[in-house]
Amino acid sequence: MSPRVAVLAGGISHERDVSRRSGRRVADALREAGCEVLVLDVDAQLIPALRAEAPDVVWPVLHGAVGEDGSIRDVLELLGLPYVGTRPASCRRAWDKPVAAAVVERAGLVVPEAIALPHDLFRDLGAPAVLSAVLQRLGLPLVVKPARGGSALGVGVVREPGDLPRAVVECFAYGDTAVLQRFVAGTEVAVAVLDIDGAPRALPAVEIVADGPYDYAARYTAGAVEFFAPARLDPEAARAVAAAAERAHEALGLRHLSRMDFIVDAQGVPHFLEANVAPGMTETSLLPLGAAAAGEDVESLYRRIVDVAVAEAVGGGTPVPRHAADGAPATAGGLLTP
């Protein structure tokens, strides 16, 4: 019997449009793979619809806070519905970039030095004094990004001291904590991780080459960025970034699928940037490109992911990830050193 899958797409975050595009792509692929699919938005009708439809499994294809901070998965567990993806506590670890960085650093990965700067502290201490200390410690260039969020919203690279205050203020438009991170030169790659065969498996790294910043517009405009899948890394560096992605997936306690973002420096060392529990699935997204580079067609792959989620539920409920980060911090701030 074909599984009934409820794909959740949309929501109310800044990334609503991307989520809708991702959701349509997943829904189309699952239909091609023989699943019965309904697409639902996250609104006042969601819970009644889920109760009425009683899907075999839910796939949250939601970006931004609701999709990635664990809250929608809390609701699905409240309703007793199995779902694709990471459980709530681990979502929260991955969603907060300073927390995720602390967890994976403890697992042995290299993380660029950074400071997490809450808006209130920035205001109370005075911007000039705080930013002067940051520049003294971290130097330039710097990457400024929200502590939570995706799709490069609010992210900027600062190369001149006079540009730093504006970049931080613009970052605060997308969250109440800004991360100021030492810029690492190298090859930017994304590595999708599948966890549906008993152990995490990294797909080939996808190299990202943009004329300018790899920002929101570049990410979701066809032709604005050049991708190389697999990435143009030497074999040793390719193995290193794959192993780092699998280790980060395990350390954060993620499940079914994830995407890890890295900069690989000139020595072939991967520097962890962030983890994504709800990777983009649009026509310009990185997980589908990695799957294609591995010889996977997305229809079969997405069907396997759904089948694993259904089988886990039938087999006695949703298991806790094998390598959840026991004792991972609930919050993080200050300097994260490699």
TrEMBL record:
Keywords, comma-separated and alphabetical: ATP-binding, Cell shape, Cell wall biogenesis/degradation, Cytoplasm, Ligase, Nucleotide-binding, Peptidoglycan synthesis
TM annotation in the entry: none
Cross-referenced PROSITE patterns: ATP_GRASP
Pathway the protein acts in: Cell wall biogenesis; peptidoglycan biosynthesis
Enzyme category, top tier: ligase
Annotated spans, Disordered: 317-338
Catalysis: reaction(s): 2 D-alanine + ATP = D-alanyl-D-alanine + ADP + phosphate + H(+)
InterPro entries xrefs: ATP-grasp, ATP_grasp_subdomain_1, D_ala_D_ala, Dala_Dala_lig_C, Dala_Dala_lig_N, PreATP-grasp_dom_sf
UniProt main location, coarse: cytoplasm
EC assignment: 6.3.2.4
SUPFAM superfamilies in UniProt: Glutathione synthetase ATP-binding domain-like (SSF56059), PreATP-grasp domain (SSF52440)
Function, as annotated: Cell wall formation.
Family in the record: Belongs to the D-alanine--D-alanine ligase family.
Name of protein: D-alanine--D-alanine ligase
